[in-house]
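Internal tracking record. Fields below are filled automatically when a chain is submitted to the structure queue. Please do not edit lines marked as system-generated. If the sequence contains nonstandard residues, flag them in the REMARKS field before resubmitting.
Queue: standard
Priority: normal
Entity type: single polypeptide chain
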Amino acid sequence: MYIRQVVSTAGAVIVIYVIASSIFHVMGHAMRLLAWFDRWGPAAGWVIRVLLVVIGCVMFLAGRKAE
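SYSTEM-GENERATED OUTPUT FOLLOWS
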């Protein structure tokens, strides 16, 4: 059970952090940890952000799934 809680929490943290990074990016700022997204161009940066949000949601839902 402990592993499920860790996975769920990690997924939620990933989603919140990437969404915050996206908002800051639109405002013209960059979060240092996620600034590497835009090294391959703006389109690749947004694809990576969306994929991380999807992965975080899957982790969150998988961790919350009842046995």
